[in-house]
Amino acid sequence: MCTNYAAARRAQLFRHFGIEPPDSPWRDEVYKDYPAPIIRRAGDATHADVATFGMVPRKHIPPGVRVVDTMNARAETVGEMRSFSGAWKRQQLCLVPCDAFYEPNYENGKAVRWRINMASGEPFAIAGLWREWNECQDDKALSFTMLTVNSSEHPLMRRFHKPGDEKRSVVIVRPADYENWLTSRTMDEARSCPNLLPADLMHAEACPAPPRVQKSYAAAPKEDAEK
Predict the structure, then answer these.
(1) Are the C-beta atoms of 95 and 39 separated by less than 8 Å?
(2) Which residues on adjacent β-strands are paired with residue 94?
């Protein structure tokens, strides 16, 4: 699973994905409830929007209801889970543009943060699912989750998460499959897409964690938005 990643920068959205960046800013490091860019279809066009990381943002969880993390959705059961089933049945699929994502490695006995990206150094996209929320008055807001699959047989991604836990990984979509993923018409068609990328196309190394900002939903400073 993935609960922290480095979002693609504005210039990368335009240069690598051919998408005009959205107006709203976002931070380089994305955690739960942070705003970040997603790429989705609207009619016959593909465009980028800013959405909240986590299918059910904390502010939409009623008081007294147990908080459940929804940053990731299991591809095998996404259509059965209340938080995701509606968006899955409506095929509200998206791409989450990334520069890297982070996972804990326990091979030395304690959690060490590792950075995973493409061996080529290019930005990439993770398969995601989005939904819309009614905000105050007539305002609308978006949120998203990343799809995951079992990675116990993957040479790289099986190295992460606690010993004894199921090994899972986000699904990196090949550029040649972007359009097929975004335009999937049926649940069966979409379910055939999530597959793990070969390990030789990926790169991973240990890296320190940056300082966390205090408010997960805080807007990015102007300098971050312009990168």
Answers:
(1) yes
(2) 40, 128
* Topology adopted by domain 5-196: hypothetical protein yedk fold (3.90.1680)
Tens-digit pLDDT profile for residues 70-99: 999 999 999 999 999 999 999 999 999 999
CA-to-CA distance for 39 and 131, rounded, in angstroms? Answer: 13
Q: Which of 40, 22, 16, 212 is nearest to 117 (CA)?
A: 16
Average pLDDT across each block of 10 residues of the chain; the chain has 227 residues. List them in order: 94 95 94 97 90 94 87 95 94 97 96 97 97 82 96 97 95 94 86 88 91 52 38
**In a 3-state reduction of DSSP, which class is residue 123?**
coil
- What distance lies between CA 133 and its chain's CA centroid? 18
| Per-domain boundaries in the chain | 5-196
Residues 160/115, Cβ–Cβ less than 8 Å: no
What pTM did the predictor assign? 0.90
SS3 220: coil
DSSP assigned state of 10: H
